[in-house]
Design goal:
Layout (H helix, E strand, L loop, with lengths): L12 E2 L4 H6 L4 E2 L3 E6 L5 H14 L4 E5 L4 H10 L7 E5 L17 H20 L3 E5 L1 H8 L2 H17 L3 E6 L9 H5 L2 E8 L7 E9 L8 E7 L2 E5 L15 E2 L4 H6 L4 E2 L3 E7 L4 H14 L3 E6 L4 H10 L5 H6 L2 E5 L7 H13 L3 E7 L1 H5 L5 H17 L3 E8 L18 E10 L2 E11 L8 E7 L2 E7 L3 E2 L7 E2 L9 H6 L1
Parallel strand pairs: 3-7, 3-8, 4-5, 4-6, 6-7, 14-18, 14-19, 15-16, 15-17, 17-18
Antiparallel strand pairs: 1-2, 8-9, 9-10, 10-11, 12-13, 19-20, 20-21, 21-22, 23-24
Length: 503
């Protein structure tokens, strides 16, 4: 999903045809240079190369695809699968069915010498005839086989690079990385190098990412960036750097829609901060987040809900049963619920979804429910923490109120979390179960707030048909921090009012 705001190309550069890849490259490719696009088979080289040529065709620039590895028919099938037409792009096969003719075989000279010379000559004749502005050479692996020695191979690549530069061509040379992994000849010759990687997961879709290894004279965005091959082309998701994004906003405190909860928070939620709702399953974290999001919508703001765990239909039905009907807000577009499948999502793609929710949809309230499922989309905990640090910093700098839901293992007793996000959170709200007179009740407390003077008391928490209710401070509530909270006092309990009346 390429954002229009990120598709611009700086002066003196040409676009790759993929807006977010241009963003990573600092404005696109320098014209009239040769670039190496390397990756294992299936990593997306051909798709990116075709988008590069199609962008040129859109601008009226002649394009040439020189292929030693795929036939013209196969290339047209790839284009057709994406809904593209290759009209205006010349497809040139260096090896065609004539190469299968026994009469074409050499018997006096060394075949590799003749074939390599004929291949290079064929490339030059085609370029001189068509005078393209953009060229794709697919692939260098076949050229390496024809050269047979690294010296001849390097010499031919240098000769081709010089030849193309004198013809005012911008060239993408594709390579499948079948050579020795330590062989960096191509890296030293090319003006720029982009490496594509794909990795199969134990479960779920394969993960693809790219890295700009080298780009002479250009300040590019380093590190790995996730990308996906979709119908319609490659979608690149630049690594999020929070320091690059800042919006002026007015710091203020807004209501959650629950009076006693606002009081516990020291006045409500502060714009440009994030709140972590922490507790065991079923205790009311999601309902609290929905209530706060609905209040934001009623204030005239837009909200986005990223739902990992629960089905969207279940969430809507449960919310309506508690007096929070979300359907009208979904219909109006004030609320967007994104049902996420962690097995099919990369971290970079998720960060891109969050950015689009803020920058394109105008969301000022965001819920991520839950971080437990998001963890499953990551290769390791340390990467999740870094990812979440950048994302939360970005959201805070955009003046967005963020609510994070983190489920804990266990119901009572030893309750644990899969990861510790306390240092990243501006506000931490703890939800717990406790027992009272043979009943399992719920309690809530605010453990931390960086922006307000929060209440330190523990209150009873109740889910009803009328929504969320929070009672008076439980002065005799003990053991909440031990993981096995219990109540020994005489404070009247909201949950026990009918039972008390019977007594």
């Amino acid at each position: 999903m390429n954002s229009p705001a990120r598709n611009g190309v700086k002066d003196g550069r040409i676009s790759t045809g993929i807006g977010d890849l241009d963003n990573i490259l600092g404005g696109g490719l320098t014209a009239n240079r040769s670039y190496l696009l390397e990756g294992t088979p299936g990593s997306g080289k051909t798709t990116i190369a075709l988008q590069f040529l199609l962008e040129g065709a859109r601008l009226g620039e002649p394009g040439l695809y020189i292929t030693l590895s795929e036939t013209a028919a196969e290339l047209r099938e790839v284009a057709q699968s994406h809904g593209w037409s290759l009209d205006g792009i010349e497809l040139f096969e260096l090896v065609n069915e004539d190469g299968l003719d026994p009469d074409s075989e050499q018997s006096i000279l060394e075949p590799s010498e003749v074939e390599l010379g004929e291949t290079i000559q064929g490339v030059m004749e085609c370029v001189d005839r068509l005078r393209p502005k953009r060229v794709v050479f697919d692939s260098l692996s076949e050229l390496r086989l024809l050269a047979q020695s690294s010296l001849r191979y390097r010499r031919q690549i240098l000769a081709m690079k010089q030849y193309f530069s004198t013809r005012a061509c911008t060239v993408l040379m594709l390579d499948d990385r079948s050579s020795d992994p330590g062989d960096l000849q191509l890296h030293s010759i090319a003006h720029g190098v982009i490496t594509l990687e794909q990795a199969a997961q134990d479960y779920g879709t394969e993960r693809r990412r790219l890295r700009v290894v080298k780009m002479r004279g250009v300040k590019y965005r380093g590190g790995f960036h996730d990308f996906a091959i979709e119908t319609g082309g490659v979608a690149v998701f630049p690594r999020l750097i929070a320091a690059e994004h800042h919006t002026d906003f007015k710091a203020q405190t807004v209501s959650t829609g629950i009076d006693n909860f606002d009081q516990m928070l020291g006045g409500g939620l502060t714009v440009g901060t994030n709140t972590l709702l922490n507790g065991p399953s079923g205790v009311g974290k999601t309902t609290t987040a929905i209530r706060a999001g609905l209040t934001a919508i009623e204030r005239g703001e837009k909200a986005a809900y990223f739902l990992f765990d629960e089905g969207m239909g279940t969430m809507l039905a449960r919310s309506k049963a508690m007096g929070m009907d979300l359907a009208p807000h979904l219909a109006s577009g004030d609320l967007r619920v994104h049902q996420i499948d962690p097995a099919e999502l990369t971290p970079g793609e998720f960060a891109s979804w969050v950015r689009n929710a803020v920058e394109q949809d105008g969301a000022r309230f965001i819920v991520i429910d839950s971080l437990n499922a998001f963890l499953q989309a990551m290769p390791g905990e340390k990467f999740l923490l870094l990812q979440m640090h950048e994302m939360l910093s970005y959201l805070n700098q955009q003046g967005v109120i963020t609510m994070l839901v983190l489920g804990q293992h266990g119901i009572v007793g030893d309750i644990r979390s899969e990861l510790d996000l306390s240092y990243l959170s501006d506000t931490i709200v703890l939800f717990r179960y406790f027992e009272w007179r043979g009943q399992v009740l719920k309690a809530v407390s605010v453990a931390k707030s960086r922006t307000t003077d929060h209440e330190t008391s523990i209150r009873e928490f109740l889910l009803t048909e009328e929504g969320v209710k929070i009672g008076s401070p439980l002065a005799d509530f003990e053991g909440v921090l031990t993981g096995l909270p219990n109540y020994r006092g005489k404070t009247p309990m909201m949950s026990a009012e009918p039972a008390a009346a019977e007594d």
